[in-house]
Amino acid sequence: MSEPDALGWSREELATRAALDVPDGAYVNVGIGIPMLIASHIPEDREVWFHTENGVLGLGGVPEADEVDLDMQNAGKEYAKIVVGAAAFDSALSFAIVRGGHLDIAVLGGMQVASMGDLANWSVPGRTPGVGGAMDLVTGSKQVWVLMEHTDRAGTPKLMRHCTLPITGTRCVTRVYTTLGVFQPAGSHFECLDLAPGVDIETVRALTDAEVTLARDSRE
Amino acid sequence: MSEPDALGWSREELATRAALDVPDGAYVNVGIGIPMLIASHIPEDREVWFHTENGVLGLGGVPEADEVDLDMQNAGKEYAKIVVGAAAFDSALSFAIVRGGHLDIAVLGGMQVASMGDLANWSVPGRTPGVGGAMDLVTGSKQVWVLMEHTDRAGTPKLMRHCTLPITGTRCVTRVYTTLGVFQPAGSHFECLDLAPGVDIETVRALTDAEVTLARDSRE
Amino acid sequence: MINKVRADALEMLSVVPDGASIAIGGFGLTGVPVMLCHALCELDRRDLHIVSNNAGIDPTGVGRLVGEGRIRKFTGSFPSNKEFFTSFHSGSVELELVPQGTLAERMRAAGAGIPAFYTPTSAGTDLATGSYPARYDGEGQVTAWLSPKDVRVFGGVACVLETALATDFAFVKSYKADRLGNLAFRLASRNFNVPAAMAGRVTFCESQSIVEVGEIDPDGVHLPGIFVQHVIESQLGKFDAPTRGASL
Amino acid sequence: MINKVRADALEMLSVVPDGASIAIGGFGLTGVPVMLCHALCELDRRDLHIVSNNAGIDPTGVGRLVGEGRIRKFTGSFPSNKEFFTSFHSGSVELELVPQGTLAERMRAAGAGIPAFYTPTSAGTDLATGSYPARYDGEGQVTAWLSPKDVRVFGGVACVLETALATDFAFVKSYKADRLGNLAFRLASRNFNVPAAMAGRVTFCESQSIVEVGEIDPDGVHLPGIFVQHVIESQLGKFDAPTRGASL
Question: Smallest CA–CA separation between B56 and chain D, in Å?
């Protein structure tokens, strides 16, 4: 299932695992990157509504070439479809939805998550500046999920005691889905709720800056 | 023209006089009472748009019995018509229009106006409580006109050195149309811009608490 | 599947307890969720904190809640209703009088995640300086005043700090609604229904009609369903008091 | 009679001086008033303060203003544009980086008479503590930082004070417009066009079509004409640079 040379879940598998935890009837905002993959993996018996920060509730999938509507893009500036029953609105109302606490889940990418729930995902010194809606999403949503590789390409941990990169928000992350497992920020440590197939807790600990405990009902 | 036993303009004449000063293309909010009479006296060659605080730009006149639309009332809670090109919106946007400085003129009734431009028109101790949109209108509109009798029924002046009733706003009134003439709050005094037919400045002064000066180009 | 459409108003509103705060849409006679107000009377709920522009201009809707003495506190801009006046001056109701634009903005703020904002409206007036009565005793004496508001100057203009006005529930009235809670309104009946729905933690919508999903054009949705938790079709006269107007 | 429809974009925009601040609608490629941006380039305006969510994602629209070096200051949330990055780091452009929701709300606030509001968004981050660069010198050194924001706690949550973002002008793009300036939009192209039109003291709208008064239903007007001063029909390709993309 996982790519031959990679430990744990592939990006697609990771999105599929997270999608399993999205309840029926949820209102969800999915960020650019791995999070957007969630939308195509929601179990078929669930009705989930996707919010796109640029002003639509009821974001659909990718259009065929002959279906492209020039007035419809997603937050990643790609042409997108809407679903039947969608609603359009301006950016002020779009962020009233985000900041007013109406979204059940915001799914974001991450550079670092600290065990207190702090998130860093917007700024790397020397890179193109841009914050977008990330700081709004983390302060407003009922749940904030981060989907990311467990380490960066150099193998440096991303689940931290404390974030070393500029933070997006404090104590905001409620769950982290990495290529190695599912984790919950628990203050002094992360609690591991699930492990990817073939991954053991010691491997996770070796690749994690913060302490990790194993929840009773986790798979291992 | 004026009612036989009344000095100066009738309410209808007063509204007609004020309507003369509403420029073509103006966006105007008219309050309950004498101000509402203005709408039917705008010179025919002018296009004036009326805003009603309950959420319509493009308020029209009074409907015939068979024209009543149960979803359309004016701020006085009377059934009303709309004009072609009208726009409907919610109360938050309606007051964004009011408070954001977009209305050219707010026309209000008044209990007292002070020469500094303070207005009292919302509260009389012991009367039914209610402020409505008055405090919003006086802080937001480019011009605030007050249309009222020159004195109360007992003959007590309403153009004051200082308001003795609770104020609606400070330094907000730009012009006052009374049954006796047209006045501009000028700080230490009112400047009289026009007098109703048959009214002289001494009569005005006798019925005014504040000092009144005569503008050079006034009619007398 | 999401289905917010309910069949029984009494069952739907049974979750609203005595003492609840409720934002109610409507202005004058337009856009008032009359059936929901009457159903709440049927359920005999009391000690309510009602947030509404008017206190009813006839004995229906909010006016019935007032007339039947079900309100402990009223927040609004223009409660020009004789029963309300009597209740206020006799000390049975507390009043938070708010300028209309501030009321709408405070309700929107609650739904938009804005805990507070500044506005010049009411600065320097009795409504800002703590000089307006909030409650009377039975003898006509003021026992509580509105709280004085924080003042800060922006661009030379004195402004008061106003806080978000969140409520436990909201009652709104729409022209069209679908099972997702998407709402559309007509003309002046939109009014406070949008800010009220934003202010309520749980929003109930009484709709003139329930339509299929997709019947409201995406660009014609005035309030997206995420702000609405329950929808019910309006039934004119349902739950009206048997001797309508008798209490006036 | 009110007629806000203009025929000549260059004549219409001639009132916009060098140094002006302009709020521009659009997000990605949707709802961007491309013709107005290009006309401003034709008029050779410079030293502009542009307020826009993006700095253009290709060399058209806001991207052309960036590419031709016409911007002295940019306020926005996601200026992910290589030319912009180069201009910022080389010290030729000042950047005010703002979270997207705060940006929309600050623009709306300007048009709504709200001088300032509190929000938890960005509290405790570099954007709130004065720890993010606003300007570099030519050597890659930071010469100015964002201003630290006032903090106040509401309900146990630290919030920052954000001020209204008013601009001299606004450029917006609509789907339909009439001579009164009433606007209607389609789907995701509404985005920042509504808050931008509210923020601008004078708002210019480029519309895909100009329709007769009354063709937009009163309940289908997304922005009433009172927020719009000038309307012009969009002409695809008008004022495009002759060698489009050459500057990339």
Answer: 9
Q: What is the pTM of this model?
A: 0.96
Taking CA atoms, what residue in D is nearest to B27?
D226
Question: What's B140-206 look like in SS3?
Answer: HCCEEEEEECCECCCCCECEECCCCCCCCECCCCCEEEECCEEEEECCCEEEEEEECCCCCHHHHHH
**Sign of torsion over alpha carbons C199, C204, C205, C211:** positive
CA distance B174 to chain C (A): 17
Q: What is the pLDDT along chain D (248 residues), one digit of tens a residue?
A: 899 999 999 999 999 999 999 999 999 999 999 999 999 999 999 999 999 999 987 889 999 999 999 999 999 999 988 889 999 999 999 999 999 999 999 999 999 999 999 999 999 999 999 999 999 998 989 999 999 999 999 999 999 999 999 999 999 999 999 999 999 999 999 999 999 999 999 999 999 999 999 999 999 999 999 999 999 999 988 888 765 444 43
Q: Which of residues 82-101 of A touch D (CB under 8 A)?
A: 82, 88-92, 94-95, 98-99
Distance (Å, rounded) from C-alpha D39 to C-alpha D41? Answer: 5
Q: Answer yes or no: A211 catalytic.
A: no
Q: Strand runs (DSSP E) across D60-199, as ranges?
A: 71-76, 94-97, 116-119, 133-136, 142-145, 151-154, 157-163, 167-177, 183-184
The one-character DSSP state at D199 is H
- Mind listing the pLDDT tens digit for each residue in C36-78? 999 999 999 999 999 999 998 788 999 999 999 999 999 999 9
Q: How far apart are CA A143 and CA A117, in angstroms?
A: 11
Contact D115/C157, CB-based, under 8 Å? yes
Looking at the complex, does the CB of residue C174 fall below 8 Å from at least one CB of chain B? Answer: no
Amino acid letter for position A100: G
**What is the CATH T-level fold of the domain A4-214, as seen in this structure?**
Glutaconate Coenzyme A-transferase (3.40.1080)
- By residue count, chain A amounts to 220
Tell me the domain boundaries of chain C. 9-114+166-241, 116-163
Q: How many CB atoms lie within 10 A of CB B156?
A: 11
Tell me which chain D residue has its CA closest to the CA of residue B137.
D113
CB–CB of B95 and D112 under 8 A?
yes
- SS3 for A150? coil
**Helix%, strand%, coil% for chain D, nearest 5:** 25, 30, 45
C-alpha B42: how far from its chain's center?
14
In C129-148, which positions are buried (b, 16+ CB within 10 angstroms) versus exposed (e)? Answer: beebbbbbeeeeeeeeebee
Under CATH, which number does the domain C9-114+166-241 receive?
3.40.1080.10
Whether the per-residue pLDDT at C123 is higher than 70: the answer is: yes
CB C212 within 8 A of CB C178: yes
Q: CA-CA distance, A166 to D55, in Å (whole number)? A: 22
* B212 closest CA partner among B169, B200, B109: B200
Tell me how far apart the alpha carbons of residues D70 and D47 are, in angstroms, rounded to a whole number: 6
With CB atoms and an 8 Å threshold, state whether B131 touches C98.
Answer: yes
* Gap between the Cα atoms of A102 and D101, Å rounded: 14
Best mutation site among D74, D190, D223, D236 for testing chain A: the one with the most A CBs within 10 Å? Answer: D190
Neighbouring residues of A30: CB distance < 8 A, sequence distance ≥ 6: A36, A38, A39, A50, A107
The alpha carbon of A49 is separated from its chain's Cα centroid by a whole number of angstroms, namely 15
Q: Helices C100-112 and A91-99, interaxial angle, to 10°?
A: 60
Active site residues of B: 53
Is A140 part of the contact surface with chain D (CB cutoff 8 Å)?
A: yes
Task: Provide ipTM, 2 decimals.
Answer: 0.96
Domain boundaries, chain B: 4-214
| Chain C residues within 8 A of D174 when measuring between CB atoms | none
